[in-house]
Amino acid sequence: MSSAKWTQQFHNHGYDSWLLTSEGAPAAGQCREWGLNVIEIKEPKNYLDFGTRKDLRKIIRDKSPSAFFNHLTRDLWHLSPVLKKFPDIGLFNFARMFIRGVNKNDFLHKYIYSRLDRMIALSHIQKSLLLKALPIPSEKYVVVPNAVDTERFRPRPPKAEIRRQLGIKEDTDLLVGLIGRIDELKGHMEFVEAVRLITQKCPHTHFVMVGANTAFEGNEFAKKVDTRIKSLGLQKKITRTDHREDIPDIMNALDIFCMPSYEENFGNVMLEALASGTASVGTHSGGTPEMVDEGRTGILVAPKSGPALAEGVLRLLKDHKLREMISHNARSSAVEKFHLETVFQQVKELLY
């Protein structure tokens, strides 16, 4: 959906912007709802699909674009060969992946990446990993963080009905939540273990996990999580919900947000918590330390550790003044560094 977000931003700033995507992609429907231009082409059959390249050449002839902002790195296999014949068209790629222990410095990758004008990394640690893995010189990299809509996500009084839905029975109880798809790497098992430890010291605390199963991966891990919750007797302490669309209200309902991911590149959900002014606990891994200032805008703990997560949450549960201070600083940081307009200016500058 990042492609839809930036298409909208270019449109809002007076650019003739188009979303180019495969047929039936969710982003296409979203852009049409926003009144944006959309071009849909057939999903490539493979990396050498000449039909896709033919479609791209036709689009270039019809629209005369000045630049492509690519959001799925594998699509460079189609864009780069076509744009070799159009050297004046900019080619910018948003890198989403973390790459470790991989070397893609072979001839084919050198050919594909040689056409790239800029590789956009979300974090400095991601850039350092990509430099080792890809045949792209350092001067072609730029670090541009994810952005958050600070109007949609902002501090508001929590809705009592939302808190009741999430399991809060007494107004004095505190609510701690994890929001994210059900995935082992998102730290759900560690969250459950932390709940067991926290409830021993702060019994007037309830917990919620919001998120659907990871797409195309079934529900085996979700079953393991539910089994673990039951084996620890935490069914009444943890509310589990599927994917929800009212995440801004969820963030406002939480007293503390947790993102115990093993290694998040630059998690949007943490940015949403910061913008909402929700005191947060994240892991000291991946790009999270680049968005959370330990002890000032959030709490950072060791990854893959239920006890460490519990310690971080307890630190906030027991210190109301610390929660308030972090809440204020988190909101200020989000507005200053990660506001949509601020980040868009960094993206726009790549065109000149």
Task: List the keywords.
Rossmann fold, 352 residues, alpha/beta, six-stranded parallel sheet, 15% strand
Number of strands: 12
Q: In percent terms, what proportion of residues is strand?
A: 15-25%
CATH fourth-tier homologous superfamily of the largest domain? Glycogen Phosphorylase B
Structural class: alpha/beta
The string of secondary-structure elements, in order, is HEHEHEHEHEHEHEHEHEHEHEEHHH
Strand order of the largest sheet: 9-8-7-10-11-12
As for the CATH topology of the largest domain, it is: Rossmann fold
Could you please describe the fold and organization of this structure?
- With about 350 residues, the chain is an alpha/beta fold.
- The chain has 2 domains: about 1-145 and about 340-350, Glycogen Phosphorylase B (Rossmann fold, 3-Layer(aba) Sandwich), CATH 3.40.50.2000; about 160-335, Glycogen Phosphorylase B (Rossmann fold), CATH 3.40.50.
- Helix content is about 40%, strand content about 15%.
- The protein contains 14 helices and 12 strands.
- β1, α2 and β2 (about 35-40) form a beta-alpha-beta unit.
- The longest helix is centred in the C-terminal third of the chain and has 18 residues, at about 320-335.
- The model has no long low-confidence stretch (mean pLDDT about 95).
Summarize the structure.
The chain is an alpha/beta fold.
Topology, please?
Blueprint: H1 2-12, E1 18-22, H2 26-33, E2 37-41, H3 50-63, E3 67-70, H4 76-83, E4 90-94, H5 107-114, E5 118-121, H6 124-133, E6 141-143, H7 160-165, E7 174-179, H8 188-201, E8 205-210, H9 220-231, E9 238-241, H10 247-253, E10 256-259, H11 268-276, E11 279-283, E12 299-301, H12 306-317, H13 320-337, H14 340-348
Parallel strand pairs: 1-2, 3-4, 4-5, 5-6, 7-8, 7-10, 8-9, 10-11, 11-12
Helix pairs in contact: 1-2, 3-4, 4-5, 8-12, 11-13
